[in-house]
Amino acid sequence: MSEEGMNEGLEVQDSGTPPEQESPAKAExxxxxxxATLAVAGALxxxxxxxxxxxxxxxxxxxxxEQLRKAVYEVLPGAEHYDTYYLVDGSLSLSLPEGAKxxxxxxxxxxxxxxxxxxxxxxxxxxxxxxxxxQIIFGFDHVTGKLTGMKVLDSKETPGLGDKIYKxxxxxxxFFAGPETPLVPVKSGAGKGxxxxxxxxxxxxxxxxxxxxxINHGLEEWKPILDQGIPQAPARSVDEEAxx
Length: 244
Hints:
There is one protein chain. By secondary structure, the protein is α+β, with helices and mostly antiparallel strands. It is built from six helices and eight strands; from the N terminus they run ααββββββααββαα. The protein has one domain (55-235). Strand 4 (118-128) and strand 5 (133-140) form a beta hairpin.
């Protein structure tokens, strides 16, 4: 049988592309739905932040207050207790006006010996350094102007360089040696031996000068106020002394 005969009666199938199938219609999301979803997500995130802040803020504030309390005693060596005085209308006061917010008022801490003698004053103050604000507390004898100590409370200065303002013991010890004020920054080893010279830190000159500047500016601000007189604090009870 010929090939033609064999092919007779055979049905030829079309091998072409099968007809396209219809794709399911895509659901359209309205702009309102997107905005509503984002608004709800934002509100939930905001609420979470508020709740976390409400829970952690008292803990953080308590920690900072405790660190400050310890720092006051550190920069006023020999103090057995201290009183907090607020600057109200240009004068020192042991109390705030009714309804006033404590954080709105500047303050100083006056330290006393066990016998009740006034030992010195501590001031917390901050100014811009090389990277960010440097916050310190320093103590001084408000009569002679001599320093009794300095401690860095907060600093984001460059690790390995600027952070030496609290890590370099030789630098920090200078403020506990009773230097006279106003302080004068000098290059390490280049001083003339004057009683108000402070050696700066090699490689961290800006940061170390910032500390010196904070102290000098703080003294300029507070000494005239302190010279007006420090109100006598009432007698302290045993319980009050135990709290400090």
